[in-house]
Amino acid sequence: MLSRLNLVARHVPRPLGPRPVPALSTPSLIPCPGLSTMTSAHAKPIHTAACLIIGDEVLGGKTIDTNSPFLAKFCFSLGIQLKRVEVIPDDEEDIIEAVRRMSARYDFVVTSGGIGPTHDDITYQSIAKAFGLKLKLHQKAFERMKLLSRPHPMQPNFDWETPSPGLTAKLRMVELPYDETIPLEQQAVFVAEDMWVPISVANGNVHILPGVPRLFERLLEHLKPHLIPRLTDPEGKGTFRFLISTPLPESAVAPFLTELAAKAEPLGVKVGSYPRWGKKRNTVTLVGANKAFMESLIPEVEAGVQGTLVAHEDELDPASDSEHVYSQ
Q: What range(s) does the MoaB/Mog domain occupy (predicted)?
């Protein structure tokens, strides 16, 4: 998919640097409507999320997935529980099954990949079939594509008004799943003024994003302000993680952590233990939204694991730590 990801990227201006679009003197000439519809009475609160990575090249080892780790950090910062990440091939049946299941089980579903101009970019059409929808040319997305995309140097004579195989390929990227019962602005939203790529939304909660990492990340970041009103914590404080570095092996701290988890997890705080192979110190974590409660637990945890609160888990590592391996 690297080749077709690059095809998509060619049609989207970079966040920085000049954009050779003579018809526009400033991106503000293309209004970017707010996503008020996404925070309307019809929008459900967001508690949980799932990520679907679509691409043969990821499963084949040709491309490394960086989008799901980015989404994981994104969700963590907002206090959204990312419950599942799956990687599937560019296969219609797999896509249909996965998006139906995820849409039914999770509040916020993000897909990545398979929305380029080539024959194997089948995400839009597969998701449309999953929910009994048709594909429809999104005229506004097409107009934005014409104004904001950069001409390819190998297509000097390309004409937006003349039917051609090249134009047909480009149109594949703006033919989106369409539900006649829902206002159009709720089905394809533009979150950045200088990007023509919309976030297509199917079945109310499936957000279809490109697989190109820089586009995926930028679209997601611009979506953040419009998700915050739908969060459990509308102030967007997110989730907190405290790290306690301990010199003890996991087997030594296990009894204490079992008791701690029984007390903390009913209050929404997860207790974790992570061995650090080849290091002298391991890490115990407290994760949750109740910052004050977790802070109150710190002295108890430090005493229970003979550890120290740290900002980074390698903070107390000695320089020679990599030479030693300890059993857990």
A: 50-230
Query: Distance between CA atoms of 70 and 47, rounded to whole angstroms?
Result: 18
Residues 150, 287 within the same domain: no
> Model pTM?
0.76
Q: What is the CA radius of gyration of the chain?
A: 23
Q: Is residue 235 part of a domain?
A: no
pLDDT tens digit string along 122-139? 999 999 999 999 999 999
Percent of the chain topping pLDDT 70: 83
Same domain, 308 and 172: no
Last residue of a domain, one of 230, 262, 288: 230
